[in-house]
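#random but structural
TW: two for the price of one
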Amino acid sequence: MLLVVLFPLLFSSAAAVGKSPALAPAPPEPVPQSLKVNRGETIDVPLGIYGSRNQTLEFRIQTHPGAGKLSAIKTVAPERATVRYTPPADLAVTSAKFSYAVRSNEGVSGAVEVSIKIIDAPPKLDAPAESNFPRTLIGAESAREIVVTNAGGGIAEGMLETSNPWRLEGSRTYRLGAGEKRTFKIVFAPELSGKESGHAQFTSQPERPISLTGEAVFPIAFSPDAVELRHEAAEPVRAGSFEVKNNTGDQQTLKFVADDRLQFPRELPLAADATATITVRTAPDDVAPLDAEIHLNPARAGASIAVRFAAVGPIFRVAQKSVNFGTASAGVTARNFIEIANVGGTAGTASLEADPPFFVVEKSVFLDATKTTKVAVAFDAQSPGSYHSELRLQAHSGPIAVPLTAVVSIAGADARIPKLIPISGSPRRSDDAAESAPIGIEHAPAVHIANLTPTSTEITWPKAGLGSARYIAEWRQLALTDGELGIAWRAFPNTAFDIKDTTVTATFSGLQPQTLYILRVRSVNAAGDISDLAIPVQFATPAKPPFIKITLLRVLMFALILCITGAVWQKMRSPRALG
């Protein structure tokens, strides 16, 4: 009975001794992780296993991260869980890792690693876009502070660089973590006047510079840099102006240094932050050019101005306000003179004209600077009455009108005579010719009548009085025009002209004895234009002497000639008689 019972046991033991016993199942293997997280944010790390065990698993943190925080494990499914990781604020920590294991019915697994890379946002400097500096005196300084913040992540590191005339006071380097700030002091130290612009630039962020602007002024400033004095067309006085600005906070007494030809106050009190306008003039007789400078005494930078002016252009003046010819004779040329001066600083030309019966010989006048000349104006009317006109001078400096007046009296009109009038009585001497001039005749200065004979005479005048290359002589005659008897000037034949350096002599031949002549000479230029002005002359030719006039002297001489002739004849006959 016992063997029956033991046999199966022995057989099973023998069978067991013949094969290996069965192994227990291993715990599940957890899944390792490699993740990224932005600093300042959190990340949920999934915990799980490979495959499935169809049971509820327990996840355990084996090692914690060296930086940052892990939350409690949260089960989200029988075989899955999560844990939340928060990265540290320390920018030096850029990664973290921890390990976990899983516990199952089969036991606890080995640990696996979870590595996390911490991502930082790029640095972002936040600074003002511009900084405007107050108006600053040259030689002084002004400053502005700017605050810079790293509004991004990471570390903003570099230097702040400025352009001239700005500079940094203190260190220019920076190292800013996320949210950190730094204050910089920028100084504006200008050396030149005017508006300045520049920039401050971060080397780690050059694409976002800070714009810098400022204005620099001299303590005493002149404006503009140069002034040119000018004059009105008819005035030689040149004038101009400039401004002086006191940019300081105190009243200043300014003393100027300049050329003596510049007329303006040499001392000026000027209140703080005030501006004054100074007018500079030249003297009326100062017509030359000038290139000079006005500056302060003592000299200051920026307190000077160049003053220039060219020579005054031609300015013509007429000395007489009007010209009155008085009473003249009809048909007889009367003349007067006007004095023209060029008070300008350069040579110029003026044109002259007058309406008949007034006229001028020279249609234009050329005068060098500061020179004066006399121009003849003539009057010749045929009818009695009062005459009014004007001499018109046109020049660069503008027009000038000089009133002209003359009167032809009725008595003067009755005195009109023909050119050839027989005169009874003894002949006149040449030096008496001026005394015989009828009313209204005005002889030109230094006109001389010489070598007056019954049939010829010579008239000499200075070439400056009526100078030209060619001349014509005319005599006055009565003429019948449209049934009315009047006076006409006609060319005089048989006239020869001898033109010398300083004088002109006209020789008139073919004259009639015992005759009153009224002649005039006019000049002709190269273009053939005949002048309006003439040299009028009147004279009377003497009577022609008889062919033979018996006098005692002539009788004695005739007798002497007869005696000599008879003696010679007798002497010539004597040899013949002897033969």
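TW: number two ↓
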Amino acid sequence: DPNDYEVGKRQSLPMINILNPDGTMNAAAGKYEGLSIKDARKQVVADLDALGLLGEIEARQIEMAHSDRSKTAIEPYLANQWFVRMDTLAQMAMDAVSDGRVKIVPPRYAKGYLDWLGEKRDWPVSRQLWWGHRIPIWSRVETDEQELEDIEAYLDADPALEQGQMSYFVERPREDESLTPEEKADLPHAVIQVCIQDEDPETESRIEELGFTQDPDVLDTWFSSALWPHSTLGWPEKTEALDYFYPTDLLSTSRDIITLWVARMVLAGLHNMGEVPFREVYIHPKILDGYGETMSKSKGNGIDPLDVQEKVGADSLRFGLAYLTTETQDVRMPAEFECPHCNHVMEQTKKNRMLPKLACKACGKEFSTQWAQTEADKALPRGAVVSERFELGRNFCNKLWNAARFVLINLDGYTPGPVADADLQLEDRWILSRLATVTQGVDEALDSYRFAEAARLLYDFAWDEFCSFYVEMMKERLADAQGRAAAQRVLASTLDQLLRLLHPLVPFITEDLWQRLAEIAPERGLAEPTAAAEAIIIAPWPTADTARIDATIEQRFAKFQATLGGIREIRSRQNIAPKQEIEFSVRCDEEIKALLAPLEAYFESMANAKTTGWGPDTKAPELSANVSLPGIEVFVDLADLIDVPSEIARNEKELEKLQGFIAGKEKQLSNKNFTDKAPANVVAEHRQSLEDAKQQAASIEATLVNLRARRSS
């Protein structure tokens, strides 16, 4: 127990080892010598019982570390270890982060790095393993002073010592003042430790001929890994690769190994190279299974990326991961087995995740898993391990592909040429403004490693604005010979920049579309068309054309999208056929009216809906369905179209929600602790929110009166 060990050190208690390296009891265990740990414990309990010294045996659950591989309890074992002194090294690594030479993102992880190094505990680097860098230390025990002096003289004359390839030091165990005379008598007179810097068979042979024996231990894996940033580039030789690539810009890693690896790479780099190994460290979130456990092969709870790639594609896998990679929290990803016979998916549980085969709950047929061992199990079709979290990526890639293919088909007859601002239609100015705004946002997100934010910005722009709105708006213009050329040039230019923005997230589909676009429109651009790069991977990263950003147009189209969405929702809710023309009106203030009224034609072309009125004085038709949006009330005239019972039920449910919201707001605003202490602007926002809710409730109540009258008639 670590706590017992610390108490023993503070009290200068003797450190007694009772274990052999193979886990059996040694001579210090007395009559239990030779027994395994498990058998020795049983025998101790039996002996206590035989002596009448056993009080009671109580079943109790305790925390005990177990090996992931062997699944057995980890037992403490006292052994001589080599340590790296950490006082100076730790301080160097701390200073590198404190003075900004190494920046950790997100910044909160820097505290754990500094706290751990601040303890400055010496680092034990001995490991009793079969693989690894063997510790380059050779030892020999000396029985008297004359023998010691003879060996020292021989070592001092060795050419490797003069060349700096070998060093040695003398350990005198009997000089330890904390030992008793009896303890000192059991120790050797001296021990000579020789360190050989590089692998040198001749020097090693000379040393071993003198009776020196190399330490059997290997270096800690993290010690070897700490050398990775420079040892892989040819260090200690001064190579061209080392000069070019060291230091690098960024290390991306998990928080689990900030102390194990990141800190040690920094201190090793500073010690060996005199410079930090990287400028920034990005700590990414972890992907956990559905139970919140870290995915690992030994637990059998991982998702095979090759299975995901086979099912939804490499781009869907990549985009899905980026979309989930938030700054603040880990990601839970429930895993599922997919039946190879019927494609039915079954939840992966703690009970079934390591079974060699499973029976599908849908078709009843058996399939193997990654744990299949017998030939019979391996002969079964293998069930893939996948997750529904990647469906979003697949749907997005499909949407992008279909929209881009529509654009490519409609670029037939494309000719490059500049497009003057005066020739841009309202929807062109909107999409170019949004494209510039999104490009700015993506740049800022990627610069600060907010990958999920970049993915969400591009997802929303590509799906909701470019594919669902702008491409739809362009259909009529593409059919018009007079406006077709300008429409094609704006479409080609917009798709060009969108593909480049998306390329880091979905590299394969964007490269494919880039090549197809190049066949039809090899020169693209609005101001001065230029030849596109041969491949998107070498195309320049797009820059935001801030001169095109127009906040008013963006606000106008945001309101338009919300209103159009409300109309479509009512059409869907009431089961009104898309070909059936509908009439709608909008209650809003004059400012919103000024934004929406110029877009009447788009409501007709995109929703088959004609407006009958805008503004604050708009009245709801006697029989109508409505949708309440921030600052907007949409009414669709449903005379002869309405499903009265379902509309009454929907409005009653909506009214109930609003009444609950109003009651909560009124209670909050009646609390003087809130109204007196909260900032005035916050209180004002809450009052306005309450007023808006009351207006929406009044509108719904009026609609319900009309609907109920209609039902009773």
